[in-house]
Amino acid sequence: MSFRVLSLTLLAALAGALPSEAQQIVVLPNGTWANDVTPDGEVVVGTAPGGGFIWRWRVDPAPTFVPGADMVAVSDDGTVVAGTIPFAGPSPETAAIWTAATGWQPLGGLESCDSFLTSAYGISGDGTTIVGLAWMNCHGLGFRWTAATGMVPLQNLANGNNRCSAISSDGTDLGGFAQGTFNRTPAYWAADTTGTVLNPAFRGEVFGFDEDGDLSVGTNVFSGSLYSAFVRNKQSGVMTNLGHLKPTWNGQATDISEGGGVIVGFDILVFSREAWMWTAGSGIVSLNAKLTSLGVTGAPALQVSRACSDDGNVIVGGCAGTPLGTAGFIVDLAPPSAFVSLGQGLAGINGVPALAGTGALLPAAPVTMALSNAKPNGSATLFVGLTAINAPFKQGVLVPQPNYVLGGLRINGAGAMSLPFLWPAGLPGGLSLYWQAWLADPAAPAGFAASNGLESTTP
């Protein structure tokens, strides 16, 4: 124990303090719009002039612009994106899939007489299934696409002109709308493409699911003429009216956290919009008002909450931006964490080993570095550095500068390891350290697996 503490103290003595300030709202460049966020809240995708953007926003200093198509939805690990290539001359609007390795790949379409051939709206958590809108015989249809099946139309429901607007992370539940008795009516489909409408007289649409599709959210007219946000439990069939933020505006719920504790959406009246969030304790509250209650000042008018992380703390969407137009936003409602995962793991026999840290990083406070998903009964080496170098290593990425190396850490039969110690006194505030575990694993590309990189920052 004393050896580890002494070593960390020595590392701190070699480093200068770096300023650290928690950002609870980030406004993106003018002309952007944030459309989706990964379940861990780390990767955001959206629309930008002439294309889209992808941003690991806690790590990278600025979004990465990807020309050619807007980015509408992202896989759970942030590596696969669904989007739409816009109409260009003789080429119609086309749904597409993107990875950094392949770039944009169009998904094709169904028989169409419309210049808008297909549009993507959602992607499954593993990035293998994309849903959206296609045109066939001059009628809109929902579609489901996989590499194995290509684009397949979903069952045509109610009076036709359907659209699939959302898919659960596990790919089992799909939702959107069909033209019902009066207008759009909420519609649901299964992975086998069969579907149903709850009641063709309902007026509304499904916009989002939780991870396994047990809960869905959207908008519906429950009485009168105003649309209200809803959450529906698939098992019970109960659709709960959440209402709206403003008494004379229409409410739309767009996404839901895992477990349903947080629901995000917006109110709309003609061209005016206002972003909101819902919890069971507070009901629907303005997202701007929520930020004000947390002491955040100077935020622009937040117009649309589009998506949220699984814990409901990270919310993305669009705001008024500058006088010249709209801009995307990222709101983080969680208190700043001492540890941030940086990704860059390398899979072994149990997948990518996961490194996590717990503790407040206060003098003499207990801190634990925990490794899981590692090769059982092996040993690990922990690299700790003052900077992140992200260097190629063993067909993976070595995240920390290896200023300090601690080897021989035993991994138990469950593929886990726990390293408790006391955080040393005397470290400057705002000091960042970078951590990563490497271990021998014959299932890894070069015989070594690696955990995600981890950044710790003292308060």
Structure description:
With 459 residues, this protein is mainly beta. The chain has 2 domains: 2-20 and 338-457, Sandwich (Immunoglobulin-like); 25-332, Methylamine Dehydrogenase, Chain H. The protein contains 2 helices and 39 strands. Strands 29, 32, 35, 37, 38 and 39 form a 6-stranded antiparallel beta sheet that branches. A 4-stranded antiparallel beta sheet has the order 1-28-27-26, with helices on one face. It is globular. The model is unreliable at 1-22 (pLDDT under 50).
What's the structural blueprint in terms of helices and strands?
Layout: H1 2-14, E1 25-30, E2 33-37, E3 43-48, E4 51-56, E5 64-67, E6 70-74, E7 81-85, E8 94-99, E9 103-106, E10 118-123, E11 130-136, E12 139-146, E13 150-153, E14 163-167, E15 173-179, E16 184-190, E17 195-197, E18 204-209, E19 215-220, E20 228-233, E21 239-243, E22 250-256, E23 263-269, E24 272-279, E25 283-286, H2 287-293, E26 302-308, E27 314-319, E28 327-332, E29 339-343, E30 354-358, E31 366-372, E32 379-385, E33 388-393, E34 396-400, E35 404-410, E36 417-422, E37 432-440, E38 448-450, E39 453-457
Antiparallel strand pairs: 1-28, 2-3, 3-4, 4-5, 6-7, 7-8, 8-9, 10-11, 11-12, 12-13, 14-15, 15-16, 16-17, 18-19, 19-20, 20-21, 22-23, 23-24, 24-25, 26-27, 27-28, 29-39, 30-31, 31-36, 32-35, 32-37, 33-34, 37-38, 37-39
